[in-house]
Amino acid sequence: MATSDQAQFAPNSAAARDIAYYLHPYTNIKAHEESGPLIINSGKGVFVYDDQGKEYIEGMAGLWCTSLGYGEERLAKAAYDQLLKMSYTQGFTHRSNETAIDLAEKLISIAPKGMSKVFFTNSGSEANDTQIKIVWYYNNAIGRPNKKKIIGRKRAYHGITLAASSLTGVEYAQKGFDVPLERFLHVSSAHYWRDGEDGESEEEYTDRLAEELNQLIISEGADTVAAFIAEPVMGAGGAIPPPKSYFPKIQTVLKNHDVLFIADEVITGFCRTGNMFATETYNLDPDLISVAKALSSAYLPIGAVMMKDEIYQGLRSGGDKFGMWNTGYTYSGHPASAAVALETLKIYEEREILDHVRSVMPKFRERLMSFAEHPLVGDVRNVGLIGGIELSPDKKNKGVFDPNEKVAPYFVSRAHEYGLILRAAPSDVIAFCPPLIISEKEINLVMDRAEKALDDTWNHVQKKGLV
Ligand SMILES: Cc1ncc(COP(=O)(O)O)c(C=O)c1O
């Protein structure tokens, strides 16, 4: 990526053509014309290489997704073989393909207790969008046509379709897009370090959050509230694991009001938190689960909704009123994506990725937690191979930097210089989410480089008089 003072790109270079033709997702459009793209052209294991040949270690597994790293021949071959054999069959009107059938069966066999059916999508956003259609259709089918409101949480990230971005609770994903749509509500997220009040214990804090949810449902009318959606561990909103007592209390409220619980496991699914699903890590009992990302290690796009039998039976009964279950994507259960996902799940088992994750988690945690002593670090948090460092100008009072100072983005750019890819989240959080195959030695490399970036950022904020 060029800096603004070298904003010329050779005519017809990839960078010039990128600027000319490619409108990027989640990118500052004007700044992009100045800086140009960072073009990553190859990768192997946990390393990627830009078009200048510079090597980076992946601290973020792409966008929380490349669980098996890069250059995995078995996944490429699974796609190739499937595409040659049968490149496409639809799933509509009773059509199927054996690969998608195998994948659905496999997913249910490893899913948290109670899941009975799978609906395939192409992404996490589509999975969450479909969740809403399922919940609405279900309630229409079983005679609860007014029970439609969906409650999400502030700081949550659930994707970008109109409905998924209405579930999302981060302002940056909503500004300018006229969302949230009607019938989408938000309660506080569970971030004890930042939002706990002076003298409030963690128990008192989670009591307060459960009561906030309870009161919202009561004031809206429980007969109008259909579902609550939550990421077991907040990802894009700041890598925030929940306090231990949070979900048990939230689930009690939901059960009391007969409100469905959707667990968005798009980031946390498939070994990330030290269990196959975070639903197990936090002993959750969701009615519906969204997955994507590590389902195929991002080698091809695929997502899915998994549901309890009770939900499936409701959809089934909808046929009496509405005829067919008329929703689906052209590429739902695409054979090549399904083949890659199936192979990904096989690799998780054969290479004992879950055991591997558990074996490297202590090193990841130890190195991450050592940042807690740094003068620029307010809070450090971790579960499994997810980590978050929240920067603060004044950790004692949990101060925040002016967002215009872009302190976390500065950190990320320094890390980048040192050959480490990390990601900034709102409130100056640095998120870590390396590929699951990362070794202890590679974890040390990530953390050594992050340490240098942190020291540079500390010097930077001191020089600018921000602390
Ligand atoms: C928790 C969660 N849900 C949903 C999504 C949306 O997934 P996608 O970008 O595949 O649409 C994301 C993306 O980061 C996510 O983190």
Concise description?
The chain is an alpha/beta fold and 467 residues long. The chain has helices at 14-21, 29-35, 61-64, 73-85, 98-110, 124-141, 162-167, 192-195, 202-220, 246-256, 278-281, 309-322, 335-350, 353-369, 407-417, 440-463; strands at 40-44, 47-50, 55-58, 115-121, 149-153, 184-187, 225-230, 260-264, 288-291, 303-308, 377-383, 386-391, 420-421, 423-425, 429-432.
State the end-to-end CA separation: 29 Å
What name does the CATH topology of the largest domain carry?
A: Aspartate Aminotransferase, domain 2
Question: Please, how many domains?
Answer: 2
| Oligomeric composition of the shown chains | single chain
How does the overall form come out from the CA principal axes?
Answer: globular
Q: β content, as a range?
A: 15-25%
CATH superfamily of the largest domain: Type I PLP-dependent aspartate aminotransferase-like (Major domain)
As residue ranges, the low-confidence spans are 2-6
- Number of contiguous helices: 16
Bound molecules: pyridoxal-5'-phosphate
Mean pLDDT value: 97
Binned, the helix content reads 40-55%
Spatial strand order of the main sheet: 4-10-9-8-7-5-6
Biggest sheet architecture:
7 strands, mixed
Please render the helix and strand layout as text.
Blueprint lengths: L13 H8 L7 H7 L4 E5 L2 E4 L4 E4 L2 H4 L8 H13 L12 H13 L4 E7 L2 H18 L7 E5 L8 H6 L16 E4 L4 H4 L6 H19 L4 E6 L15 H11 L3 E5 L13 H4 L6 E4 L11 E6 H14 L12 H16 L2 H17 L7 E7 L2 E6 L15 H11 L2 E2 L1 E3 L3 E4 L7 H24 L4
Parallel strand pairs: 3-13, 5-6, 5-7, 7-8, 8-9
Antiparallel strand pairs: 1-2, 2-3, 4-10, 9-10, 11-12, 12-15, 14-15
